[in-house]
């Protein structure tokens, strides 16, 4: 969850004499209820071709009618990315033949995108870097092809789902920066609640342009475009592979004629971890863009834009600053707590219920984060609710349970979803502070470890820690370690 | 019994109201006429008399029967009628039955009109002669050796030949007005946005409008009223109130100012046509209209602009006929590209291919600026010409077509000459303004001549009023072809 903060260790990639230049194109399905130009549902996972109508199937005589909600969501993203929003909304046709495109043209935006000139900050190590956003535009998604032995099938359910294309400038200089850009973008998009942002389901797709140039050069080198990556990690791996491939070609090209980078589209092969040329027989596309005559350009009302702007929630950057101020978190902790919406909500809910924010961040960034990562779940879906964590932390503070027990208890709650206080009672996990009970345990430990007792008596203070540990073991972690240490010292001192 | 098929809709409505006749009587008289003359005219693309009679019998009775209750109507083959063949007279849409009605069809059914069948047209409305139809050419009822005009030639010929009371056509560059003129009937192209295009299979989306082809001006007013109005299914339709045209048209035209643009009286124009128009203008002056010569300076570019804008849009609109979902798909295909190529090669006629290629070229990178973009700019100039003119004039009068009906085959090998038959009608589409063509004479060969009245955007009232007043003081519309 906190990858935005961690820089990749130096690898051979960063020792090469070239500068890597990367630009990303992100396609985002907006989570409107209905499609962008008709009333069909946008639900994911329905039976093929059940969410279609003559409009999205491109039947002759049918006309698109813009779903204003899609435009509003698009504008929301554009505002959050600090873009300038177009005053006039205009659509264009992008013409090309393909069976998943029923009209054989896609309604998109060409020379007047919804928004342009934005920026998105990423944090690389200690420093912040702005990645410029070239343009953000609205278009319709295509259908999906399923290739069989002798034929292909088409599912048009996806056809006409609103897509927002977010194009960055080539401002990223490493696969890691590309990864950080995507993570930061996703974080904002989740805050805005405009998309499911699920790369596996295809609600977020990313194509990458990459080229190399000699360090210090101003001209861009020959680029390739990489497609077919289905995770953020995949984007980073594909770019790392492609950067090395290009570097090798550039190196060879100095000696061997014909060895050079060709401007082409590469597909990332996830299984092999390599990029391969698409080898499409199609010739270079001339999309013959022209203004969509079925949709009349219109002014984007100032008042509507103001409304959208007002309804944008607190985004990661201002939230981080507020966390520093309100909860006295360090910059690092605050950035991680604010980096994604669910974590931030979780943290803040805990902070309301329980007094010590720093302790909360330690738990979230420690055991909870580890569990989330290992099990690939979201913090918001955990059985361990903020109420549970808070009551657990309170039990530690009031000496009811030990920190050690708390770690086990945490996993118990995550597994069962039971109330931690009840679990403590059911399983008898309360901390033992009763001196009588503790003395019994201490008695048997000292009897079983005469050597350590001797060592302590000879002045080896460390030996006491070993004995405390043994008592904890005997009480299954429930003993109050401070009390045990106190009693032990008292007892052994007396015996000296 | 009188021949009901020869009457106008407003006359039939009166007879129906008096209960002198029934919808079945009208339907039967149409069927009789079709059985007599359709073989020689070939005005219809799809017609099933049993279905037509069935629809007549199923008409709902009662008080709220609707303004066109029991009146039969024919529809151009590019307007979608649910579960009925709608093929644009093209092989590529062979067998296509849309699962929806065009908005105009919904409106007509709602007010009790009886759908009779579909009329022949130039393939995808590409043409001025109805010769490019996959169902063979339609013939002009006034002279079977001649074309009826196009592309709504089937609708115009059916109305002129009394196979139809009235019909719907579509007009992208003159496709309602030019055939109306050549067949001696009334044809009106409404303001762009006045009538919903939902369900009209697009030729050029920024130019297309559906409109009436009728036997007289009053019927044009009735039918226009029936199909007009804002439609939320068509973003280009305009939310402008629709007046009661029938009551408007009967008002006086005294004192109206009408412009006569000098660019519309060109060399090479048929002398008989020219003199008919001159006489018509004199008639209008007699009726109290003030006619004045004027200029629409960018007229000479209209044909060039039109053939870039219209073909560019058409090349994109017709891309969907690819064999994937509906219509024709060629057998024995090796790949998807092979399917596209063979299906489109087999499915489209020569003129459709010519226009698709022309439009594709105009939009291609490297040519876009020089052709399409420049055409858009000149289109703005043409629109501005009209805006300026309408500051001074209430309407503009011109010939509808430079010639009367020409012979079948006469221009098929010369597309450029063919394109010039739309020279007087194209500008109205580029400017989005309404225009009407009404009969104003005959040539020595007994071929009809029409003249065109152009009006301000959304001011169909004025052009209908001028047309009505002229018509009521002349007899041209009363003549019938002998068939």
Brief description of this entry?
The complex is a heterodimer of chains A (496) and B (483). Chain A has helices at 68-80, 175-192, 232-253, 302-310, 316-327, 331-339, 341-353, 357-375, 386-397, 403-416, 420-427, 435-448, 450-457, 463-474, 481-495; strands at residues 18-29, 84-85, 88-89, 92-95, 105-108, 115-124, 127-140, 144-147, 152-155, 162-168, 204-214, 224-227, 265-269, 274-277, 290-291, 298-299. By secondary structure, chain A is an alpha+beta fold.
Please give a structural write-up.
- The complex is a heterodimer of chains A (496) and B (483).
- By secondary structure, chain A is of the alpha+beta class.
- Chain A has 3 domains: 3-309, no CATH class; 313-427, no CATH class; 435-495, Arc Repressor Mutant, subunit A (Orthogonal Bundle).
- Helix content of chain A is 40%, strand content 18%.
- Chain A contains 15 helices and 16 strands.
- In chain A, the strands form 4 sheets. Chain A has a 9-stranded mixed sheet. A 3-stranded antiparallel sheet of chain A has the order 5-4-15, with no helix packed on it. In chain A, strands 3-16 form a two-stranded antiparallel ribbon.
- Mean pLDDT of chain A is 90; it is low at 1-10.
- Chain B folds into 2 domains: 4-256 and 451-478, Amidase signature (AS) enzymes (Alpha-Beta Complex), CATH 3.90.1300.10; 300-375, no CATH class.
- An 11-stranded mixed sheet of chain B has the order 1-3-2-4-6-5-10-11-9-7-8.
- The longest helix of chain B has 24 residues, at 369-392.
- Chain B starts with 8 loop residues before the first helix and ends in an 11-residue tail after the last helix.
- The mean pLDDT of chain B is 96.
- Chain A binds chain B through residues 54, 57-66, 93, 95, 97, 99, 102-105, 152, 154, 286, 288-290, 293-296, and chain B through 79-80, 86, 88, 93, 96, 98-100, 102, 197-202, 204-206, 232-236, 312-313, 315-316, 319-322, 324-326, 336, 340, 360, 363-365, 368, 372.
